[in-house]
Structure prediction request, 241 residues.
Amino acid sequence: MTKIALEVCVDTLAGAKAAQEGGADRVELCSSLSEGGLTPSAGLMQAAARLDIPCVAMIRPRSGLFDFDAGDLPVMLADIAAAKAAGLAGVVLGVQGADERLDTGLLRQLLEAARPLPATLHRVIDVVPDPMAALDHAIALGFERVLTSGAEPAAPDGAALIRAMVARAGGRVSVMPGCGLEPGNVAALVRATGVSEVHAACASPAPGARAFSDFDPPGGRFVTDPAKVRAMVAALDGVTP
Prediction:
């Protein structure tokens, strides 16, 4: 029986340790998860690389959509170099051009710099005009996996497109659903789509957390919750696509 892998996104070293404690298979390292995840610091990369769980780094220099350009390229290349120097297990990235489609030219440069590290195409695929065409490009470019919510705000709502992407990929790339996944819905999504791995935040409000300013997330800071990770692992136990 193939085990369904769980990737947990975190933005602190404590979060990475909590994911490991809870039984996650892989960690996506970010900063600013409240902004959808930005590039983690070099210090966080180095510290997380010493854990016993594979960690991959988000390469995203700012919030908003993913229309990075040649001016952003040196920053992204330096961040990829930092991930490689830290000994991380991979990178997560995505770029769209002025026409909102994948910018395959910039992506080739980023992927070349990342080699031999594997790369994940992030949820830029959910905001391009044609996600299936973007999936074809991701395969041709050599991405190892694609993170997607099926072009919907939450992955359960995008199950039909995710299932179609899995069929189109035909095993050439892993299609990994993420966003809105909880212990109560993850098994049904796996069965409905045929995916072999999933992505989730597994976060809870930080006990006693206080906001520093009006720019902080509503309701205070969230932290990775090992109990939620364990619940996700339990929900996936024995599930087959």
Notes: The helical segments are 13-22, 42-48, 73-86, 104-114, 131-141, 159-169, 186-193, 226-236.
